[in-house]
Amino acid sequence: MNNHEIDYKIFGEELQYVEIELDPQETVIAEPGSFMMMTEGIDMQTMFGDGSNQGGLMGKLFTAGKRLLTGESLFMTSYTNNSQQKRQISFAAPFTGKIIPLDLSQYQGKIICQKDSFLCAAKGVSIGIEFQRKLGTGLFGGEGFIMQKLEGDGMCFVHSGGYVAEKTLQAGEILKIDTGCIVAFTSGVDYDIQFIGGIKNTIFGGEGLFYAVLKGPGKVWIQSLPISRLAGRILQYGTTTKREEGSLLGGIGNLLDGN
Questions:
Q1: Within a domain: residue 67?
Q2: Structural domain of residue 213, as residue ranges?
Q3: Do the domain assignments include residue 259?
Q4: Of 25, 59, 215, 248, which residue is 20 to 30 A from 82 by alpha carbon distance?
């Protein structure tokens, strides 16, 4: 194995964090801002690039550029156990949902996931980019032309919003999903988009114009509450005045306006 082997335990239900146990000289890499707590003996270091084992200035510039394209920081943070005993470090997701552990050695060394979903991983895992080859998928697929690509043979952790459903697709089996609900899928899954169709569906359906179409074989992880959907609902309630506020109608006002 090229990656560090790490042990872990996930705590919580809807507001989860992952505790990783590091043997002496083991290292875990994480996105800036995901750190929660750690025991004494672990040293933190900020790294330029994606944390993979690519050496040299050009290799670091290349991996940093890939991260910039996915909207991430140019830097990552590594945590190394420099003591002579096992130590623990914990990372938390930035919003309510589930943390998904993925052993890349069980998925042909590659997982494709949505941008911003990566949380942390064993040192040696490469966090790169996956270009969507089809023009329609890139323009209308919800994630644009670029998604994150996790490569290696070690453990990595991604986070999602709400509940996570795992689906195993057989060869040729098709699953239609809201574009924002995709968390990750294995490299054998074909990703495309499909127009919903119908004038009434398009104008009044409220579900967007396209489905994400995933075709097996492979495994898919689906989230019930995309952060974009949650943010949109918060924005909706934060920028409008509810009828019961200062109104004699109280809750009846919500019935009249459909809320």
A1: yes
A2: 7-239
A3: no
A4: 59
Hey, what are 88's tokens?
């623990």
110 in Cβ contact with 104 (< 8 Å): yes
- How far is it, in rounded angstroms, from Cα 208 to Cα 210? 6
Helix (H) or strand (E) holding 256: helix 252-256
As for how many domains the chain has, the answer is 1
**DSSP string for residues in 59-109:** HHHHHHHHHHHTT--SEEEEEEE-SSS-EEEEEE-SSSB-EEEEEGGGTTT
How many residues are there in the chain?
259
pLDDT in tens, 34-64: 999 999 999 999 876 555 555 555 555 555 5
Chain mean pLDDT for the chain: 79
Tokens 């359906």 identify what position? 205
Radius of gyration from C-alpha coordinates of the chain = 21
246 assigned to some structural domain: no
Q: Where do the H-state alpha helices sit in 2-82?
A: 56-69
- Residue 211: give its domain's CATH number: 3.60.160.10
Alpha-carbon distance of 150 to 158, in angstroms, equals: 10
